[in-house]
Amino acid sequence: MVEVPTIKLFEQAICNRYYADQSVRLRLTALDIDEGLCKIPPIQDELANLTGLKFTFDALPGLLTALYYGSIADRLGRRLVLALCCAGTLCSFLWILFICYADTNLPVKLVWLSSIFLCVGGSQRVAKGMNFTIIADTVDKSHRTRYMYLLAGIPHLTTLVAPPLSGLLMLIRIWLPFAVAIGALALGLLIIVFMPESLRHLSSSPKSPLLGAADTLTGTDSGEGTITPPEQLPRGIHNRLPGPGPENKEWWRDIIVLIQMPGLPFCYLLFFLKPLAMISKAFVYQYASYNFQWGLSQTTWLRFSQAGGSSLATIVVLPLLSSVLNRRGLHAQMLDLNVIRVSLLVAATGFVLLQLSYHSWMLLLALFICGMSEGEEPALQGLATSLIDHAYHARLFTSVAVVEILAKLIGGPMMGKLFSIGHAKSSGICFSVSAIILFVLMVIACVQRIKR
After folding, report:
1. CA 278 from centre of chain
2. C-alpha span between 446 and 137 (Å, rounded)
3. Which residues pair with 449 in a beta bridge?
4. CA dihedral angle for residue 51, residue 53, residue 54, residue 56, rounded to 10 degrees
5. Which of 19-23, 54-58, 362-366 has the lowest mean pLDDT?
6. Chain centroid to CA 284: how far?
7. CB 122 within 8 A of CB 69
8. pLDDT level of residue 272 (50, 70, 90 thresholds)
9. Contact (Cβ atoms closer than 8 angstroms) between residue 73 and residue 199
10. Angle at alpha carbon of residue 215, lines to 451 and 221, rounded to 5°
11. Which helix (H) or strand (E) holds 31?
């Protein structure tokens, strides 16, 4: 609901302050500023910088607190962390509205302080990790990825409704989409209060995150072997991780050991580089508005196109494919790995088309193709959780949140600078960089093999 309205609020605030300064210097009367007057390089460059650094500052709370909230989730439950995330996001929205509607004497850059409120709960990325942790807690690994597809697809379904509705509300009042979003967060808090807790308090904690994991991921083309029993694992591994509990507070050590588990370095590489590449997609709305002279309220249909591809992939195609192939005996991990490979190739193709989009229909097609690649994340999550015991799922997902946040810290400013390359228009070089990263990841995924 608020993705495009937030950019519109930022642009409107920058534009109002820019022309207010001009009118003071030139001793002009108050101006009725049309949106077309905001499509000039000084305003658009400041908007790109503001948006890029906003990504960075929004990432910091999660980076600093995600592992801490992971340990809280293991000790006190998933519901508490979810509730805190909703409350922090709610306060962040309210701060943005306050700054953008305040007197023009307040600098627009004060919206960056909204990120401080995300320290409550650790940001939406931690909430997302908690949702996937709940699925991993309650579903067997042979069916887990199918449910993760559905969970990943729900936001895409809502995106089919939210952006068009947001665009219509923006035409009435710019703050109306925020009012709906705040109402949704309040409803979310109410739901969390009544939802069951998925945390399992095991009577005997496993000695290793690998216990019960029958498969590993290797970088060679090795065939299928035998299952390695726990006593034959590399010396020291199966005794290094105590079970999560109130007495175990050294969760940093757990994360370090998790990263060393067979197969997980590949997963963490994708968890880092894929989000970094996808950040450039956030600049598509500004790209369309800047290059095609669209009003920002019109760009909500771009989100609709992307959501159509995402929903088709995660709600229909991949769950059905997973169900059929599982019944035919295809190993779940092999299916996940193949989905990752194909999704990365599809995503790279979509970003190449974004770079070449000189017409609006090409932009819509490119975003639809990018949306079809959204099955990569739940497939990767299913693969990663299948490599470790379920008692360590919260630690895994919160460490993944840290990795993805680091990607945003680097990718936000980087893609913002790349987007600004050009004179009268953006060159869109950020999309080319994303395509290269995704293609390299696809090649790396193609050399990975499942060893059982």
Report:
1. 9
2. 29
3. 218
4. 130
5. 19-23
6. 16
7. yes
8. very high
9. yes
10. 15
11. none
Go through 381-391 and write b for each residue having 16 or more CB atoms within 10 A of its CB, e for each that does not: bbbbbbbbbbb
Q: What is the token pair recorded at 344?
A: 């990365």
Distance separating alpha carbons of residues 296 and 170, to the nearest angstrom: 9
Name residue 350's amino acid.
Answer: G
Distance (Å) of CA 168 to CA 6, 36, 71, 296, 403? 15, 19, 42, 12, 36
Give residue 40's region: left, alpha or beta (phi > 0; psi -120 to 50). Answer: beta
Phi-psi domain of 123 (left: phi exceeds 0; alpha: psi -120 through 50; beta: other): left
Residues whose CB is less than 8 angstroms from the CB of residue 408 and which lie 6 or more positions away in sequence, other chains included: 55, 56, 58, 59, 275, 276, 279
Strand partners, 258: none
List, for residues 338-361, the tens digit of each pLDDT value. Answer: 999 999 999 999 999 988 877 778
- Output 350-356 pairs: Cβ under 8 A, ≥24 positions apart: 351/277, 351/280, 351/431, 351/432, 351/434, 351/435, 351/438, 352/431, 352/432, 352/435, 354/281, 354/284, 354/428, 354/431, 355/428, 355/429, 355/431, 355/432, 355/435
The answer to whether residues 244 and 394 touch, using CB atoms and an 8 Å cutoff, is yes
Distance CA 337, CA 311 (A): 20
Which of 431, 411, 430, 410 is CA-nearest to residue 420? Answer: 430
From the list 178, 61, 192, the residue with the least C-alpha distance to 123 is 61
**213 Cβ contact partners less than 8 Å away, ≥ 6 residues apart:** 386, 387, 388, 389
Q: Which two tokens stand for residue 211?
A: 């216990």
d(CA 334, CA 338): 6
Residue with tokens 């390695």: 228
pLDDT by residue (tens digit) across 315-328?
Answer: 888 888 888 887 77
Which phi and psi (to 5°) does residue 18 adopt? Answer: -65, -50
Helix or strand run (H / E) with residue 403: helix 393-419
At CA 102, angle to CA 98 and CA 104, rounded to 5? Answer: 145
Structure tokens at 149: 């597809």
pTM here is: 0.68
